[in-house]
């Protein structure tokens, strides 16, 4: 259990804490300005989410720089990412902040690409992360943060950046999934 893997595990343990602050009514007061309001629960959840998302790059950097790449890390890192994004998105659906169809597109893509990677491993191939996979992650994190903080500061100018970012995340997620399947169609044998 090296430092990179501990950071990844910490990201996994942050998931229920974020969900707690999003879904449990703690009766904290709200911050209200003009037409904008946000609860302290959401602010705390957003800050924890930002820290958790930041650790995704940190654990990978440490693992590569210190040559600490392990099979456990290869398993835990994508699992932690999927748990973090999926749990927060499902919570945001529960809070009526994002459409369920967007979350279904995102989570379905994650299952599909994970399945493709498993098939590739069974065939002796490794599917590396693509540039579209990295863009997908950035788009999802941007959209989630905008949703968590109630579209701040764009709410003051009536710009639905949170909605726009959600659509962009869904489109890039869908495209990146198609890109993985098109580029790796050779690992799927439909004749079996």
From TrEMBL:
One MF term in the entry's GO annotations: CDP-diacylglycerol-glycerol-3-phosphate 3-phosphatidyltransferase activity
InterPro entries: CDP-alcohol_PTase-I, CDP-OH_P_trans, CDP-OH_PTrfase_TM_dom, CDP_ALCOHOL_P_TRANSF_CS, Phosphatidylglycerol_P_synth
Subcellular location: Membrane
Pathway linked to the protein: Lipid metabolism; Phospholipid metabolism; phosphatidylglycerol biosynthesis; phosphatidylglycerol from CDP-diacylglycerol: step 1/2
E.C. code: 2.7.8.5
TM region(s), chain numbering: 12-31, 43-63, 137-157, 163-182
Gene3D superfamilies associated with the record: 1.20.120.1760
Pfam (any one): CDP-OH_P_transf
Bilayer topology: Multi-pass membrane protein
Reaction catalysed by this enzyme: a CDP-1,2-diacyl-sn-glycerol + sn-glycerol 3-phosphate = a 1,2-diacyl-sn-glycero-3-phospho-(1'-sn-glycero-3'-phosphate) + CMP + H(+)
Chief location: membrane
UniProt keyword terms in alphabetical order: Lipid biosynthesis, Lipid metabolism, Membrane, Phospholipid biosynthesis, Phospholipid metabolism, Transferase, Transmembrane, Transmembrane helix
Record keyword Lyase present: no
Function, as annotated: This protein catalyzes the committed step to the synthesis of the acidic phospholipids.
Similarity comment: family membership: Belongs to the CDP-alcohol phosphatidyltransferase class-I family.
PANTHER family in the record: CDP-DIACYLGLYCEROL--GLYCEROL-3-PHOSPHATE 3-PHOSPHATIDYLTRANSFERASE 1, CHLOROPLASTIC, CDP-DIACYLGLYCEROL--GLYCEROL-3-PHOSPHATE 3-PHOSPHATIDYLTRANSFERASE-RELATED
Protein name: CDP-diacylglycerol--glycerol-3-phosphate 3-phosphatidyltransferase
